[in-house]
Each structure stands twice: as C-alpha cells, then as structure tokens.
Amino acid sequence: MSETTTALVTGANKGIGYEIAAGLGSLGYRVGVGARDETRRETAVGKLRAAGVDAFGVPLDVTDDRSVTHAAELVERLAGRLDALVNNAGISGEMDPGWVQDPTVLDLEVLRTVVDTNVMGVVRVTNAMLPLLRRSASPRIVNVSSSVGSLTRQADPDIEIGPVMAAYAPSKSFLNAVTVQYARQFAGTDILINAACPGLVATDFTGFHGPRTPEQGASTAIRLATLPDGGPTGSFFEDDGVVPW
After folding, report:
1. What is the pLDDT of residues 39-80, one digit of tens each?
2. Residue 26: C-alpha distances to residues 85, 88, 119 (Å)
3. Is 18 a catalytic residue?
4. Strands, E assignment, 52-169
5. Cβ neighbourhood burial of 163 (10 Å; 0-12, 13-18, 19+)
6. 231 in helix, strand or coil?
7. Cβ distance 225 to 24 under 8 Å?
8. What tens digit of pLDDT does each residue of 199-242 get?
9. From the candidates 18, 29, 168, 182, which is the catalytic residue?
C-alpha cells in the first residue's frame, strides 16, 4: 500500500472544488479529481499536474450508485486507501429571477434533484469510500455546506442571509444534520468529519458574484481535511470560526 496521503474531492473540475484539490496537492497529497464531465475532468487533471500536483481523474456522478461504486474501486486500485474525502459536488437547483426559490410554488422535482445531489450524493459517496478511509491512520471527511443552511442565521431577521432559496438552503441544513449523525456514529474512532462554509465565492455557481475568490473559498475545507489527530468533529466552520447550526 502506498504511503502517499491520498484525497478525493468531488466536483473538483472547477471553482472551489478545483482549488481544494490544488491546495491539498500543494501540501503533498495525491488528489483524485472527481467529476462527471470527462473533458473538464481531464483538463483539470492536466492543469494540476502542470502545477506539480500528483493528480488523477475519477469519473464520478454522485447521484449514480454504479458510478460511485466504480469510483471507489478506482481509488482502491490506484491508492489502496483514502486519507481525506471532500464532498464538494453540489447544485443550487432551478432558480426564479433574483436567485429565488419560492416555497409556495416550488417544483418538487427541483427539490428532489437538489437533495439527491447535495445530501444523498454525500451519503452515497461517503459510504462507498468508508472502507478505504478506515485504512488510513488519520481519516478526514469534509462536507462543503453553506451558511444559508444555518437555521440560526436564516431565522434571525437582523442577519442578511440572501434571498429565499427553498430547495438549496434546506438541502444544506439537511447536509449539516447528516454530518452530525456521522460524527456521532464515528465517536471513539479516528475519523473526523465536519462541514465547511466557503462563503460567497465568485464562480459560475453564483454567476461570478461574490467578494471571495475560489482560493479563499477553499481554505476552510483544506484546513478541515488536514486536521491533526484529536481535532474537532461534528462541527460547522467558516474562516472566522464556528457557524451556528
């Protein structure tokens, strides 16, 4: 089994996911670039390798059981174990003008699609990769969430949290809750699992609106993926510290 530390980042072909992969690679991790689109995936791998990162492509659709199973088999063949899993892949779902998802007219199919990717996809990938993570001396799991999933902030009228997003925001609240359940299940083990908020980052996900760069957005996830033994678990972080649930 290779002694090289290996990370898998889902949705790593662009934006925050790419910068998480680049950041972990710069720290010496061999990085699996998980992505559905072959052309974008291989372009990202090539760019990372040109920057000196030991990167390899992982065909991965987080909504497809067979794709996830094949991804786990590929990582096992190439690395033998997994030291860090960053569940970054996510979607916002169809929006009305103004980036609004009105709950009173919400298409349930939009809700199903968002939850399938943002929540079920995380569970699907995490469970498939767990046997490989358990082979690591210091396994880390990071779920990329959002402050819009904070019920505390959403419910406070004095906090500007953005428009109503009746599919995306609850999917991140759901993801946060799932993260806590994993942490409870992993209690007493070496596996640390946390949620990370990248902040409002200027990527195609946000229509390139936002004060933060993808590199800045990746910083918290990178920190959580490289926590020392005994670090926090079952928590929700942003650059400034803990995000309230």
Report:
1. 999 999 999 999 999 999 999 999 999 999 999 999 999 999
2. 16, 18, 29
3. no
4. 55-59, 84-87, 140-144
5. middle
6. coil
7. yes
8. 877 565 655 566 688 899 999 999 999 999 999 999 999 999 99
9. 168
